[in-house]
Design a protein that fits this description.
Order of helices and strands: EHEHEHEHEHEHEHEHHEHH
Shape: globular
Oligomer: single chain
Bound molecules: zinc ion
Number of helices: 11
Distance between the termini: 32 Å
CATH superfamily: Metal-dependent hydrolases
Largest sheet: 9 strands, parallel
Amino acid sequence: MKRIPCFDSHCDSVSKCCYSGRHLFANDREISLDRTAQFSRYVQLFALYWDTAIPPERSVLHEYERMKAYFHAELAAHPDLAVHCRGRKDIEAAHRDGKAACMLSIEDSSLLECDPAHLEMAAADGIQAIALTWNYRNAVSGTCAQNPEMGLTDRGRAFVKESERLGILMDVSHLSPKGFWDLFEMAERPIVATHSDSDAVFHHRRNLTDDQFRAIMESGGIVGLNYFAEFIGGTRDIPALIRHLEHFLELGGEDCIGLGSDFDGCEEVCHGIDTLEGVPNLWQTLENRGYGESLLQKLFFDNWMKRLHD
Ligand SMILES: [Zn+2]
């Protein structure tokens, strides 16, 4: 099979591997960085995540530092295979050198204590996107799972303003519907959903309604398709995932859709894309359905690249 590009906007591999004593390379999980040479170009956003229902040993910020240190130590052990990238130029350099481009994001602003004052540090660390919430309500907003009627708080608005100033993308996956529309009202920069599917295709609180998808497009943002079987619904396989993609395409999303696997973050992944090695199966299936090379390049890589800063 020919080598395809892959830009994946969400996985939980760093948080999972960091706390289970595994490596990001040569592991038995869904993403193992030694197996990325199958792609012509590969970018992975690694989300830093801490389950705030579990009291941290010292503080959540300490866990942020722990995961960050783990990420850098893992990459330092294999400098020939992968490198940390802070923007588009870094990615291009990584690919010229034949390396996997690894980036950081945050899932749940609680990891920064919902404090805008910590965002400068996050930006300096190369954080590309921050999900305002995970499933638990926090000081910034309600979520799709808890207090969905609760929108952005004053602190949430301050958090958004400062993130935008620093060029960090606001990620609405997991956010409450009210929080989503509050963000849309105030946002001056593109809104992204790093790992979300279509609610019109399969109703789930984590999926995006058509109006939300249109709003993301209007903001200049992008949605990364999630491979989690529970969100895909139906037959939970590649054809079922393609129904989400094609619904977004019907809404005019050709330039606003990418990949957002949720690898190492969900119990049951889309059948046929069980690990990173399965991603070419999605490309092949789409090619068999008549998708042209330029559309596939957009969906698998170029659309996400356009949302990054240099
Ligand atoms: Zn998630």
